[in-house]
Design goal:
Blueprint: E1 6-13, H1 21-37, E2 42-44, H2 56-59, H3 66-75, H4 82-94, E3 97-106, E4 109-117, E5 123-128, E6 151-153, E7 156-162, H5 169-176, E8 182-187, H6 194-211, E9 214-219, H7 224-230, E10 247-249, E11 265-272, H8 274-282, H9 310-315, H10 331-341, H11 346-355
Parallel strand pairs: 1-2, 2-3, 7-8, 8-9
Antiparallel strand pairs: 1-11, 3-4, 4-5, 6-7, 9-10
Helix pairs in contact: 1-4
Length: 356
């Protein structure tokens, strides 16, 4: 657990700059300054906020989205690169942990990525959304299990999932089993309608209860002008409204402060990490309330790679990464996990043989 139990956190609900990734980055940096000035030590931004969420893919037929898809490529974020360096510098200057959603460009593909920067500016985690949802499958590639990690930060143990990944109980359990203290949730916002906001609220409150952790959730906002630009047909504009539920939830499933569901703003709250023990004393889903001899999760945490060098494959069960350079920093962690996986575990062996 973190050195102090009291942490001030912030969830940001603002509009992107639909013309420029650099413009959206400026908005991110301004929001960081504002949140830090109010004492926030953790700041969470919406899903793929940089350069912007691909709303166009939700309201336009695929055959009509080519130009906008290519424009997203043009403004997408390379990790590491100038954008991550700018955010890292701000995190280091402000002493703030930052969770930022980006459209990550890795050569010829785009991914829905979540980046966690520690208060010293280091990039502690880069993960990719496991399965893009519905229209998103035309935009992004798939992530892998290597990103299902909880990382230690200056504010505690932080895990992250994007949008409907919260409907995947095994993905959530993977983070729960690593004892996350603060869960950063990200949704696009300004999508589907009011029912989406209700669904988000149910989902994040349930995860807080089940995981016994705090959830800091950020959703994005679109202005009326932006909605009209994305959906010139008025009949489609309702699909780009509602769905905002920027919120901070305690391990007991309650809102720490009233949620933000309309307009732009930064939600600020003080959370007490000691409440985690209070909740888990009653029900610890991955501890005294678990039955691992009956049910357990098997996670393949190897990074996906389209090619493996034969020599390195013989030396290690983990393939060499061919993705963004930031993946290279995670290899030592994967090797350590590989060693741990090699330890005798008769229960897992029995389960696997039974499954076979």
């Amino acid at each position: 657990m973190a050195e102090t139990t009291m942490v001030r956190v912030a969830a940001v609900q603002i509009a992107p700059d639909l013309d420029s990734g650099a413009g959206t980055l400026e908005r991110v940096l301004r929001a960081l300054d504002e949140a830090a000035a109010k004492g926030a030590r953790l700041v969470v931004f919406p899903e793929t906020f940089l350069p912007w969420y691909p709303y166009f893919s939700f309201v336009s037929a695929p055959v009509l989205t080519g130009a906008e898809h290519l424009r997203l490529y043009e403004h997408a974020v390379v990790v590491p690169g100038p954008v991550t360096e700018a955010v890292a510098a701000a995190a280091r200057r402000l002493g703030t942990v930052v969770v930022l959603g980006v459209n990550e460009r890795d050569h010829g593909s785009l991914y829905n990525a979540q980046l966690v920067f520690d208060a010293d500016g280091s990039l502690r985690l880069k993960r990719r959304k496991l399965t893009p949802t519905f229209h998103e499958r035309m935009i992004w590639g798939q992530g892998d299990g290597a990103g299902l990690r909880v990382v230690p930060t200056a504010v505690g143990r932080v895990g992250a999932l994007a949008c409907w990944e919260h409907y995947n109980p095994l993905a959530r359990y993977a983070l729960m089993a690593q004892h996350e203290e603060i869960h950063a949730a990200q949704f696009p916002g300004s999508l589907v309608g009011p029912i989406f906001a209700d669904q988000i609220e149910v989902t994040i409150r349930h995860h807080a209860l089940e995981a016994g952790c705090f959830v800091v959730n950020a959703t994005g906002w679109l202005t009326e002008e932006q909605i009209a630009r994305i959906a010139p047909q008025e009949a489609l504009r309702r699909a780009l409204t509602g769905g905002c539920m920027t919120a901070i939830v305690s391990p007991e499933g309650s809102h720490v402060v009233p949620p933000l569901t309309q307009g732009e703003g930064i939600l600020i709250a003080d959370i007490d990490l000691a409440v985690i023990t209070k909740r888990k004393r009653m029900m610890d889903s991955v501890g005294h309330y678990a039955r691992p001899e009956l049910m357990s999760l098997a996670l393949d945490n190897r990074p996906a790679a389209p090619m493996r060098a034969a020599a390195s494959f013989e030396a290690s069960p983990f393939p060499a990464s061919s993705g963004s350079r930031s993946d290279e920093g995670d290899q030592s962690a994967h090797r350590s996990q590989a060693a741990a996986d090699g330890d005798p575990d008769q229960r897992v062996a029995v389960l696997r043989s039974a499954a076979g």
